[in-house]
Amino acid sequence: MGRSLLGTGCAAYLRGMGASHLTPPTSPSFWRSPLRGPRLTALLGVVLLAGITLLFVTGLLSYAAYNPDLAGGVNDKTPGKGLLGFYLFSWPTGPYWLYRLTQGLHVTVGVALVPVLLAKLWSVIPKLFTLPPARSLGHAMERLSLLLLVGGALFEFATGLLNIQLEYVFPGSFYPLHFYGAWVFIGAFVAHVALRLPRTVRAVRERTDPAPDADDTGLVAPRPDPPTVSRRGALGLVGAGSLLLLATTAGQSIGGWWRRTALLAPHGGRDPGSGPNGFQINKSAAAVGIREQDTGADWRLTVEGGGRRVRLDRAGLLRLPQHTSALPIACVEGWSTDNQQWGGVRLRDLAALVGFEGEPPGVVVESLQLRGAFRRAALSAHQVRDPRSLLALRVGGAELSADHGHPARIIVPAAPGVLNTKWVSRLTFGEW
Amino acid sequence: MRWRERARRVRQLLSGHHWCGEGSLHLLLMLASFALTAYAGLRLLAGGQWPLVVVWFAGAALLHDLVLLPLYALADRALARYTAARGGHRAWTAYVRVPAALSALLLLVWFPLIAPSAGSAAHYEAATGLPAGVFLPRWLLLTAALFALSAVWLLCRTAAARRAGTGAVRRRRRATKQRSAPPGD
Lengths: 432, 185
Description:
The structure holds two protein chains of two kinds.
Chain A: H1 2-17, H2 38-65, H3 98-112, H4 114-123, H5 125-128, H6 137-164, H7 174-206, H8 231-247, H9 251-254, H10 292-295, E1 301-305, E2 308-312, H11 314-319, E3 323-327, E4 340-346, H12 347-353, E5 363-367, E6 376-379, H13 381-385, E7 390-395, E8 398-399, E9 409-411, E10 424-429
Parallel strand pairs in A: 1-10
Antiparallel strand pairs in A: 1-2, 3-4, 4-7, 5-6, 5-10, 7-8, 7-9
Chain B: H1 2-15, H2 24-44, H3 50-85, H4 90-114, H5 118-128, H6 135-180
């Protein structure tokens, strides 16, 4: 059966190429699918236009959420960004679920758009082989721009999908690759939309494809095979693919019972543990080189700023006024947890220990961890002043576990998870 | 009517016969887009691994257009011919094509989790505290469920078609009988 399947396949391929009078893919009659045409391409294009715009905007928001301009660029993984950071603003602390929403959308919609992108590229593949390669200078420029468009889209999707699966095989750090790659892509994307929008609108309005000899797009097959599926059926398959990906991914962002439905998402299925510390972990203590002796009875927190320095042990921290905040952890990888009941000391109370009463400045937080890109991270004055921002010592009524940052961790509303530094050893207020 | 005139002018600028072959608006748009590309591209390639970044960028397009797309198109074509050769029931193709395509899509997107190297699996487990071995069985079960669902659907459709078919035959027979009965009988 396998052999005959392969045999039919090869025969079909040769027939497709026109075995007797070999048809190269540069000839329009090589392309046989009756589905291709401006209407299919336009419908997929409209979905991508909406989807990719959402991805770009939520991506820029995530970049702003890191506050890359703080403290001389402590959080900045792209210090050479120049004008590309033109829009940066101080990331707010409310609503507290803001980053959970924007980054959940960025990753989940990105995953669900994969079949739409693949279908769109399939629908225009004959154009790749069009001869002559360039009719004019303008046409050559447009084709170069299309290489940037297709290469950029696939580069962004590939780096994003690999990063959320913790498969860091791409050449360099994820942040600059995905950020600058997005800007390279968006230049070609905007030009492409501007050039193709009039034809797209017409194709959506007209409802039928032109005949091959009247086709101005070069997409309609001049010698089509009999259809094996309708256009509606093909679009249905693309939609089913998106829905299936959505259904097996979204639960890792929605949380609660829904996490169990995220069967193939990196933080779906179930939680790593049970009890108050059972929720999702980004980097375990062992993975970043946290040793037990560093977090035991000898652990001290150093609070510095304004020329003063205070050292506190855990008992000393517990003697300070204790507060609780119900806040989620929301990761740049798109997953998030439900609200956890954090208990600990307000960051502004810690600032007051070194003399910053009333309106405290921002803070640089240092961790005990030996590895990891954000073992030193900055929080804005705005984030320090929020009464929900804590140096947490407890969660859900229990001590923090080693993997959740024992003996003390930061928790700030609406901040990306990576800025909620675990295993904190030092807080330096207002020193930049 | 003025907007129509304006729209015509824009179309002309986009596609009119300028010295470069396209309209002057087209040229300006391309140049603006390339300026942004160059500005961001220089930063994208600023690291020590820039040749690899170029390979990834162009390679992604080439790998998709010249390997992935021909492979799945060929597989689909073979499937369509194979199912057509068996009884020529067109609908039959869809019942294999749809679950196979959906399963392949899940594999394409989640490949690093479904089939990780030993190192990747260990890294995933160390970082998240979650077991890495769950994704392959889950994907296989989802695939099985998709094919099973498709088979049940096909069975229902076939049964319904048969019932409708025999119903139609019976109705036709009855009609023929009535017509062939002598009048006034």
